[in-house]
From TrEMBL:
Record family assignment: Belongs to the NAD(P)-dependent epimerase/dehydratase family.
InterPro entries (alphabetical): Epimerase_deHydtase, NAD(P)-bd_dom_sf
All copies of domain NAD-dependent epimerase/dehydratase, residue ranges: 8-229
Protein name per Swiss-Prot or TrEMBL: NAD-dependent epimerase/dehydratase family protein
Pfam families: Epimerase
Length: 301
C-alpha cells in the first residue's frame, strides 16, 4: 500500500488527462489513469483500460480501485463531430457520467469527484438556445451529476473549463493554427493560414493552469458548487495569430472567410480565485510551447 490518496482520472490519455496525470503524480496522489485503449508514456501509477459506456466495466474498475478522488475528464469534446455522431456524443459525455457516479455511490459515497462540464452548456428551460448536440450532451451530463448529488448526497463538484490550450495533442483552434505554421516552416515557402473570422473572441487558459485549478478544487472546492476554469480575459483569433507570429519564422498570409463582428465569450474565474488559484502561464508562453510541441513531431497531422 502506498499510503497516498487514490485518484482516478478518466480520459487519462487525452490532452488534459496527460497533464493531469503528471501533475497529480508529482503532488502526492496515487494516480489511476483510465483509458479506452492502452496509452504510451502515461505518467500514472497505474493504467486501466475501460470502456466508460459499459456499465459492468465501470462498476468493476471502481470496485477494484475504491478511489478517494475522481477527476472525470473523458469526453467527446469536438462540436463538429457532435453533429455527425450525436448519439455517440451523448453516450460518451452523459452515459459515462451516470455509470461513474452510480458506481461511486455503491462503492465509496465519500469519494470526492470533479465532473468537468463545459461553458457551452445551455439553459434546459429554454431549448431555443440549444446550439449543438455537444451542448446538449454536456448539459445532460451535469444534470445527471447534480441529480445524484441531490438524491444520494455524493461529494460532487462541477468544473466548467473554456478553451484550454498548451503543449500536447489537441483539436483546439490554437493547436490547428500551430500545426499549419509548423508545416509552413518546414516547407520553407510562403503559406496561407485559414481563419473563419479573426474577430471571434474566446477565453483561453493554459491546460497546466487548468490542472492546477482541478487540484485546488480537490483540496478546497465545495461540493455542489460550479466553478468556471477560465482566465477571465477574452482574446480574438487575430490576437492569437499575432502572438504566434512572434514565435515563428514562417512566412504566411491570413485568409479570412468572414470579416463580420465575431461573437465574444469571457468566463468568470472569481469562485476559483477565491480559493487561492491564479493563472500562472501567459498566453504568449502557451502559444510558444504549442509551436515547440508540434516542431518536435516529424509530420504534424
Amino acid at each position: 500500500m502506498s499510503g497516498r490518496p487514490k485518484l482516478v482520472i478518466t480520459g487519462a490519455a487525452g490532452f488534459t488527462g496527460r497533464h493531469a496525470c503528471q501533475y497529480f503524480e508529482k503532488n502526492g496522489y496515487e494516480v489511476i489513469g483510465i483509458t479506452r485503449n492502452k496509452a504510451n508514456d502515461l505518467k500514472a501509477s497505474k493504467q486501466i483500460q475501460c470502456d466508460l459506456v459499459n456499465k459492468e466495466e465501470v462498476d468493476d474498475v471502481i470496485r477494484t480501485v475504491c478511489p478517494d478522488y475522481v477527476l472525470h475528464l473523458a469526453a467527446q469534446n469536438h462540436v463538429g463531430n457532435s453533429w455527425v455522431q450525436p448519439v455517440q456524443t451523448v453516450e460518451t459525455n452523459a452515459l459515462s457520467t451516470l455509470y461513474l457516479v452510480d458506481a461511486i455511490r455503491q462503492v465509496n459515497p465519500a469519494c470526492k469527484m470533479i465532473i468537468t462540464g463545459s461553458v457551452l452548456q445551455f439553459e434546459p428551460q429554454n431549448f431555443e438556445t440549444l446550439p449543438h448536440p455537444y451542448s446538449f450532451s454536456k448539459t445532460l451530463q451535469i444534470m445527471i451529476a447534480k441529480a445524484w448529488l441531490a438524491l444520494y448526497q455524493l461529494n460532487i463538484i462541477i468544473a466548467k473549463p473554456a478553451n484550454l490550450i498548451g503543449p500536447g495533442e489537441s483539436n483546439g483552434v490554437c493547436a490547428i493554427f500551430a500545426k499549419q505554421l509548423v508545416e509552413i516552416e518546414k516547407s520553407e515557402e510562403e503559406g496561407i493560414l485559414e481563419v473563419t473570422n479573426v474577430h471571434v473572441r474566446r477565453d483561453f487558459l493554459d491546460v497546466r493552469d487548468a490542472v492546477r485549478g482541478y487540484g485546488v478544487l480537490l483540496e478546497r472546492g465545495k461540493c455542489g458548487e460550479e466553478y468556471e476554469i477560465v482566465s477571465g480575459t477574452s482574446r480574438s483569433l487575430g490576437d492569437i495569430i499575432h502572438y504566434l507570429k512572434r514565435h515563428t519564422k514562417a512566412k504566411f498570409n491570413v485568409l479570412t472567410k468572414s470579416n463580420t463582428a465575431g461573437d465574444i465569450f469571457t468566463g468568470n474565474p472569481d469562485k476559483l480565485s477565491a480559493l487561492g488559484w491564479r493563472p500562472q502561464i501567459a498566453l504568449d508562453e502557451s502559444l510558444a510551447d504549442i509551436l515547440d510541441y508540434y516542431r518536435k513531431i516529424e509530420k504534424p497531422v
